Amino acid sequence: MNPSFMQDPFFHWDISEITRRGAKALKTLQIVGGIVALILGLCLLFWPGKSILVLTVILGIYFTVFGVVRIAGAFTISGMPGGWRVLEALTGVFMLIAAAIIFKNTGGSASFILMFSAIMIGVSWIFEGILSLTEAAGAFHSGWSILAGIISIVAGVVVIFSPITSAVMLITFAAVAIIVFGVVALVRGITFPTVK
Quick one: which of 172, 153, 156, 147 has its CA closest to 121? Predict the structure, then answer.
């Protein structure tokens, strides 16, 4: 039985409203997305170091391409106010500097990105725990909120004080999650109804 919000037109798929071409495109996107997610997840699970290096290089390429695009846009887009042009050009320059740093020391950049991500996750968990405890202070049945807040704070502290170990566990978790998402996307794509 579907929850009531699933009947809302924003969430509910009416297959009769989808064209044959649209349904085929959705099916293809699900299958291709599932295969890509499976490959990425398996690479991250079995070769985490190399996968993170590859992702770091991709990030460097991204910064290079979009840095050049932003700088070019600052000088070529007509009708752009002067302040926006300066901001666009500065953003492009900072992106190119970030790309240069990444390409100069890819291994160090990958390690930094991984540690920074783990620390930021830890900090966010601490804040989430504090928020849960604050919200629980005014609630009548607040036992679960207090428990969730304490667990969140403890997990955040563990991640901050042991970012390398936490990062390895987060990579493993992310890899498994991506594999699961890939399998789900593949199944959804294969079983997606066809329009006649």
Answer: 156
Give the global pTM: 0.56
Give the CB-side neighbour count of residue 134, counting CA atoms within 13 A.
Answer: 7
Contact 175, 28 (CB under 8 A): no
Domains of the chain, residue spans:
28-191
Per the rule left: phi > 0, alpha: psi between -120 and 50, beta: everything else, 79 is: left
H or E element that contains 121:
helix 106-137
Tokens 């901050």 correspond to what residue?
A: 160
CA 81 to chain CA centroid, nearest Å: 32
Q: Where are the alpha helices (DSSP H) in the chain?
A: 20-46, 48-76, 82-104, 106-137, 143-161, 163-191
Return d(Cα 85, Cα 13) in angstroms, integer: 43
Answer for the pair 102, 57: CB distance below 8 angstroms, yes or no. Answer: yes
Residue 40 has which token pair? 């990425």
pLDDT in tens, 17-58: 556 666 677 678 788 888 888 888 888 888 887 888 887 888
Question: What's the rounded Cα separation, in Å, for the pair 102 and 109?
Answer: 5
